[in-house]
Amino acid sequence: MSTTVDHHREPAQDRSAPGPAGSLGLHLRDVTLEVGDGGEKVRALDHVDLSVAPGEFVAVIGPSGAGKSSLLAVAGALAAPTSGVVEVLGQDLAGLRGQGQLAAFRRRHLGFVFQSGNLVPALTAADQLRLARRIAHRGGRSRSFDPAPLLEAVDMGHRAGHRPGQLSGGERQRVGIARALVNQPSLLLVDEPTAALDRRRSQDIVALLARQCHQRGIAGVMVTHDHDVLDHCDRVVEMVDGRLVDRRSVTLRP
Amino acid sequence: MFLALRELAFARGRFSLMGLVIGLIAILMVLLSGLSSGLVNDGVSGLKSLPVSAFAFDEGTKTDNAFSRSVVDTDQLAAWRGQPDVAEAELMGTSIMNAVTDDGQQVDLTMFGVEPDGFLAPEAADGGALDGPAGIVVSESLRGEGIDLGTVITLDRINTELEVVGFTEGQATFGHVDIAYLPLATWQLIAAGQAPDGAAPTDAHLAALDFDQASVIALQGAEGSELAVGSAEAFAAGDAAATTTTLSLEESFNASPGYQAETMTLSMIQVFLYAIGALVVGAFFTVWTIQRGHELAVLRALGASAGYLLRDGLAQASILLVSFTALGVAAGVGLGSLMPEGMPFALEAQPIAVASALTILLGLVGAAVAVLRVTRIEPISALGGNR
Known about the structure:
Chain A is built from seven helices and ten strands. With 254 residues, chain A is α/β, with parallel strands linked by helices.
């Protein structure tokens, strides 16, 4: 398994999405999120600015409760910020009205990878991908979908007929990554992907995530506690008390 | 359906357990329906088979057991015959008596006194029609009790002898007692207390009788008339003229012995069964949906609409309900056919179809209430920090 992040960074594809050219990827501008907690407002995100370009894979680290998950939530159209602008693919998320439009945006443009895969227990690896396809597309386009190439891409072609209960933690996470890629997302949001994995597998998984983002021109944001995997990331930012601190930028290409 | 079918296969243990409960409810429902139909048949099959639109009882007769209480006479009959839309109107006598066959067997009989050449006269499937003053046509179901053509039956206490001359086609019972049709005049002879002791009634007895009363007036409305469909307004005019209280054939079932109490008891049990079914199915799907809460939150985060998950959940519940209700009904019908002879039990397609539909429908309502939870699941809870 390759642990290098050597790759061909493809130019971001035009995904015929609205918005001005050059604003593809993820842009958070002065984003603040206040969470009501028994009448007392907690500032989970405090004037956060973050841009992730297509094909760039960024890690977000920081202690528990620093607001990492909140960052994923607002970037992933799961929570609306109290103030500030969240722009994905040139679309200001504030322009999406209601749960229905938000869900539609998520299934068309976003990919999620969760802790320990979070697969549906009843479905085989191939069916996990088929379900993600069906969620995004009605009718014929989902029926003609072939999950095999994507499973091959995450080295899970040989496990297509296995259910989550028959897979190891690393294998589950690979299926989870393939599932996130099914609908060709522009933005990949990754939540603690190595929480349940040993060191070697963690390296493999994060390398795989970085490679997929680079190859497919996807803007990737990964929240993690695991400092051993940061080498695979193009950039690492740290969150402290809801504020974002650029910790280091890694240039991985000559 | 994609997820629904795969989950049914994956969690087949849990779903079979639930299916078993649904199936058992369906079996119970078929058996209750059979018992209910059987009791109705036993109670009023004799009335159902009459070509009657309505019965006119003497005015003010208490509905409960009115067939035995009511007394009407020929003046009232004449008043009804004068009404428009009345195709046929005849006096009919009803009474329940004990009797002994010539070989000492005790039998209970509902005596239906009808004009031998009138519209109420029974068609004998075996033997002859009502003829002489001592001939009776009895329910087919009495064959099992050692009664045959030519059997002489002696009525208790008055010791009047009657002879079986025919059998009706199929069961004819009233208030769980087999029916014996006899000529109205003979019925009146018995009712007047002038029946001969230790002998059969003869034409001479009948000629000497001066008695014009019977229990009820049987009415048949002209085809397509209001009276024929049992409209209350159509009865009102006749009731006013004849000082009677008229009930349509269906309403009159309640006037037969025990009918209302039996059907109400069974209906109540059935209502409870439906409610229990809906609640059990609702409880199962509530637990199932809560159990899948995190998985559903993940699917919502992936962008599945609430409608998609709702449809999927309802499809799952429908498949479960329809398939196991069908299995239960099949098993219930199988069990029902093993019911011992003599038990009031009748499997009829229509009540079983209605009951199956209700089981499925109410089960779906229960499941829908549970599955509606998916619309309240917050997709944000899929993220680790909010677990």
